[in-house]
Input
Amino acid sequence: MWSRPKPGESEEDLLRFQNQFLTANASSAVKIVKRADKRRGDYGSGDDSERSPLQHSRDVVTLEDFPDVLPPLTPAPPKKSKFKNARVHFDEDPGERLDRSDQHITAVFSKIIEHDTSTASVTTPVFTGDGFPRVFHRSEITSEAKLVPGRKSIFAQKIAAMRATEAARASPTVDAGQMDTGQAVQGEASPLEPEFHRAEEDKPVGTVHPLRSRLVTGEGLRSLSGEQEAQNIHKENLERLQSMSEGQILEEQKRLLGQLDPSLVAFLKSRCGTGTSQEGDDKAEQERPGKLTPPEMQPRPQHRTEEMLKAPLLQEPDSEGEPDTEGTRRAGAQARMEVTADDLPVKPQKNWLHMDNVEFEKLEWMKDLPQSRQRKTRKGMQARFSLKGELLPPDKEFPTHLGLHHHGEEAERAGYSLQELFHLSRSQVIQQRTLALQVLGRVVQKAKAGEFAPLLKGSVLRVLLDAGFLFLLRFSLDDPVDNVVAAAVHALHALLVSPDDEEYLDKTFSWYQGMAVYPFISSNNEEEEDEEDEEDNGQPPPEKAPGRKPKDANKPDPEVARYDAIKGLLKTRLLHRVRYILEVMQPVPLVVLEILEILTRVGRHSTEACCQVLDCPRLVETVIREFLPIQWDPRVAEPGQLLTSLHGVPCAAAMKLMRVLASGGRHAAARLLNKCQMKSRLSRFIAEDPKDLSLRTEEALRMSTEAFRLWAVSVGYGQACDLYRDLYPVLVEMVSSLSHLVSRSQENESTFELSVQRATAMMTLLTQVTQTAGCRAELQAQLSRSDPGAGDQIPPPPVAWSQVSGFRPVVEAELKRCLKLISQKDTWQALQPLMTAYVIYVGAYYSNCSQQPSVNPVDCLEQVEHLTSDLLLPLLSQPAMQGLWEMLRLCSALCNPLSCSPAPESLPSIVSLSCAGGQPPMSLAGSKSPFPFLTALLVLVDTITRVHKGLVGQFASVLEGKDLKDYLQHSWTAALPSLSSSSVWLLRHEYHLQYFVLALAQKMAVACPDYSQQASLYHCVAMVLLSRLLPGSEYLAHQLLLDLAFNPKLIPEGRAGGPEAADFSDLLHLSPGAQLVQPGSAAAVPQPRSRGALLREAYERLPSLQACYLSHFAYLEPALAHSRDAYEGRTHRVQSMLLPEARGPILPADWPFLPLIGLYNKVTAAETQRAVWRSPPVDLASTVTRSLQWILLLETWRAGVLRGVSAAAKLARLMCVFLTGSDLFLEGPVHGYTAALLSLYCRSKALDSLDLDAPLPGLASFHDLYVSLLEQFEGVSFGDPLFGVFVLLPLQRRFSVQLRMAVFGEHVSALRALGVPLQQVGLTCATCHDTFPVPLDQYLSPPEDNLNLLRQYFKTLVTGTLRQSWCPVLYVVAVAHVNNFMFSQERTTQEIDIARKNLLQKAWLLADEVLKRHLLYYKLPNQESPVGFDLYDQLPPIRLNYLHAVTRKEHKEGMSALDC
Output
């Protein structure tokens, strides 16, 4: 052990100790480790040799691609220190620093750029007697400098004042100019000043420096006269400015400011004060806080959010007047900037320490707010909202103690704009974030109610969503503070959930087919376009593969949320955060209820959304465990008990969430019942009476109601039927107690409505159980017939028919009691939902009873007869029923399209039923609507008449009602409302009523052959309904095609003189001089037939027409199977309670043309793939003929059915006949029916409505279709006149010139075969032997003005391509237009005038005297003339003089020769 040095030992002793230590090779007691400098931030840098031995010997585990430092939790960029590089580094060699900084002399000299001093003036120094500059004292400076901000010392201020005085003595002219300028600025602003605010130092228009330019000085020019050149330029600029008016200067200034870069403009303005004596003062003046800059120079908002929030929402002005002048706005801004000591609430005192200099700019915010100016302006003002979300009027004063004033923009106005609320929501203060989210939630709630629609320009919700409001709420949900999360949940609930929509959906749950609803999925136009591209031959796109990802999987969240808010939120893992909030944070009851309603809204979106909710880890388990417990604290039911937490307490909203999730599909329902143990919950809340539940009365009734609805949905899939056997005694007791509910209808109890809803849900459950039990016999038969190893077989349900038949007598008795109260309006309105459920149950019972092998058919028929005689017929004869039929038209959505119109603030990305504020009582879903009960009644009548056909005649009174006929007449003639989420929901229920009325009419027509009253009306309604039915109703559409559309008994015109009337109508359309001449045609037509004969043939072949269309609609078979299972009550085959997405009707409005379109699409697809359609169908001609027969029948006897299809669309679809096959149109039947249809489309009324320039549905370009028609005509027409008429129709003058150029330009060879005569139409129909179907005036008026087309007319005439014998119609058209153009006297351009004279000269010089005479002597069109027009005997004097002036020849000889 070495001893430490002791006092008294010398330096030699220390050296001796050191030598001994080194000789012994001992280790030192202290080891020096060089640590990295934290100020350098170089952790871990250095060589391995610098590490200690301990560091070398340590075992270090390294992971690839894993950072050593944890990543930051926020996406903010890493912080950088400003002083990092300036710190002292102890480990750096000073020599290296010198070498790095001190470079070689050559490197320094190589960077020198010599300034041009050739034009600089050199002055010799002035000789003085003093050796140094004279020293002065500040007291010798008499002039005081102007006090400016910037904390200048007194000495510096005195120096600035002295220099200003010397500059004033040297250049008095400049001072005078500047003084005038300052006076001009203080004066009144010019009314013509530009659209931006100018500061006080800005000069008025036209004020410039007279001495020299501020920008161009001449420095840097290599010429000796550089300064002189700069002066010359400045002089020229001055002269040009003086020659311009003030308005021209302002206009040029505005143009330059718009073209130049804002930074360059700022630089030029900063040069305005250079060279003056008060340069420092000007700079300080420019840096004042009150400095106003033009809008072009102001910095743009940093975030796109602020731009979106600030611009679109403008309040409508209350009064109109002249807009504010710029001077008024500048005066207000100047008043806000000027702050004096009198404006301050506390007056500064002189004896205050360090308060000698009062900084008024910093104290500006302490002064009182100026009075808000009630500006009369036509310009909108930014919308501002109160803390309650109310829109504040801009012209109203509010006291400051309300907390609505702040220091943002427009501080004098109360309220917060959306931009300010967004900014406040990102505050670091918890209370401010919470307040901003609360206000935004209230604004959204009031906007959805439509309170802002008449007051604001634009949509509040659209502005918020475009600005990212959805993601703001999503980010706020991640906040660790409970209050912020609660506010974010409330705002998200206000945005997504509509309580009124949920109320009406619950109301329609027990209607006929009410459990099935359309998904709340937004229609994506991009996805629709993609699917339309995939469609082929009118068939739907193929279904998605099981492992295929959705199309929006790779899209960013904002893009997905732009067209579907729910999808966008689900991509942000919203469900996981909601689970954390419910499970860990455990918010207050109100937040829990809002979260459950948000999840319910997510579940209504689609089946995929329901699956995501079920797949979210522990989400559904948490909801069931916490809010659907089997045991809970009974103290929550005590009156006055404050519920501080909803966890551990049953909640009806949670049960409703389970019901909505189960509606997403049978697999989701099975998971809830089995895996999540919902069966035990159903038993718990159904077996016990709501009064005995340890819950509040209202909540207990809601819980029991939702339990019944969830059970009904499960039984609708054939599941949870074992609970029916366990709870059968409880259900019997409940059904027996329904009589007490009817007796309570006279009492005004608050819980009566909830009790009716519970009873209605129970009857809906019994209906589903009855339908499930009715399928047992069918499934047992299939199971017995199938082999044991023949795949998976559906087992029969555990409910037999004998277990459900016992409820029928009780229900019928209760129904009979309730129907006696129909005359009491209030009682009837309260009990109508329950009676509707009764009627639906009875109909479902008899529909399945007749199919049960265990039931005696005779007993079933006797029960039906008793039901009809004892219940239905007395009900139909009551006067109160007449009132229900009368209200059909008043409550109809078809007759009143405004009742189902979208809300003002509805958005495509957030689907809503637009029920905010409730439906009107006189609407389809209103409280007084007769639709639910009448639909259920008609369903029961349809079931009875199907089971017992002998009772059909007893229900004739239903169809004979005047009000029903009036409703049907107005419904089918009314225009279809635009399809939206709110309209499809209502229209589906209205279509149910119409279908069952038509089904009764069909049975009446079959049972009573003489019954033909209103048959045409029912057929029209059926045809229109067929084109209106929505997805999910394919079964109804199929039944309409089978029983009604082609039913000859509903088309009485076919056997009651309809064909004869058609022939008589054609005779009335003949002109007096018409001759029935059969034109030449290559078609195989043995003998022309009249339209009446064609109609008679079509009427006789209605069954074959029906088979043709049914085979064409075979692609709907999968959807038809699902729809049939739902309507026939085959619960074991129902896959989901969510209907297919309703993007449009099942069949388009032009569905009679679909066979023609399908054949044309096959030909087009073959041509696209460069293949030949070598194997056309064997019955191609018969298919086209049947389609044409059906179209002709509809156009003649049901013209109103196809009124939704434009005349242009009909013509385009009829052209498919000629484009399908090479000689199809030459077939006799095809040719005849096509000619008959063309005669209808060429009538004056149809021709007037023909518009080929408008976009046609299903057709990208009519021009392309017409070019294809021309090519087909050139190749296979054989000069057929019928084909020629179709080519000539689009060549009318009012249509696009491109169509005429296609004939006279690229397809001029078609003129050789266009031999359509003028005196008769080239049609095979004998009723059409009239003159050319289109008047020639449609081709000749107005005169042609396209020069290229006129030249083509003249060219084809001169070259002989267009001749009167080949193409009579276009020969007349070409001659008339060329003649009119040559002799036109209108003033026009020089080019047109030269072309006009050139054509006239060429026509005069023609060698063909006949063509020459036609071109020069054309007078008027005349279809009776052999050439199609009349000629002048002699030219009128005006034309003769013009011809003489152009040709410059002697006309007498020429005229005499022509006359001969």
User: Anything to note?
Assistant: The chain is about 50% helix and 0% strand. The first strand starts at residue 314 and ends at 315. The mean pLDDT is 80.
